[in-house]
Amino acid sequence: MSENETRVTGWPAHRVTGVDVWPFRMHHGEAEFLLMHRVATTNEPPFWQGVSGWIEPDEPPHLTALRELREETGLEAGAIYSVDAIFDLYKPRRGTVETIVPFAVQVADGMDPILSDEHDDWRWESMTAALGLLPYEPQRTAIRRIAADLLDQPESAHLWRIDPAPEEPEETR
User: Fold this and answer.
1) For every residue of 112-168, which 3-state class applies, written as one string?
2) How far apart are CA 120 and CA 114, in angstroms?
């Protein structure tokens, strides 16, 4: 794409492609977040993260979040919430900007994950400890939003809660 074409038509698609899922539980009255240690790949060193995954064709992002939670941990969500933080990720090999949508899922206390081959370790951590382990600012931002919107204001959590049933498309106005 030439410089003139880029100025006229814009850069290639900016699209929603993935989800981050932040499982949390209430343990002895305190919130704990599930962190998983991602194994090294050819393109990335190992790091701590929540659950992450790519959206499949025609799959709503919140259903992707529930599917990825099951696939990567074997856990089921007791509740799923939107997180008021969306972040963009530049993928230089594809030359695209991809948007990742974060979700919070509350799981039952006493349940531990069964890891997929994408991770080699896991731990439940307080918010403070989680913030110290997560390498990327968008991850830390998601944890802070979950604390501010759900944990610190439980009376408002219903504003962020998502009904996991597939929704009918909204009519355009």
Assistant:
1) CCCCCCCEEEEEEECHHHHHHHCCCHHHHHHHHHHHHHHHCCHHHHHHCEECCCCCC
2) 10
Written as one letter, the residue type at 163 is: D
Contact between 150 and 104 under an 8 Å Cβ cutoff? The reply is yes
Tokens (6 digits) for 159: 């504003």
Over the stretch 96-113, which tens digit does the pLDDT of each residue have? 788 999 999 999 999 999
Q: Model-level pTM?
A: 0.85
Residues near 96 by Cβ (< 8 Å), separated by ≥ 6? 12, 13, 14, 15, 90
Query: Residue 170 has which token pair?
Result: 């909204």
Which structural domains are found in the chain, ordered by start?
12-162 (3.90.79.10)
Residues 139-159 pLDDT 10s: 999 999 999 999 999 999 999
Single-letter residue type at 172: T
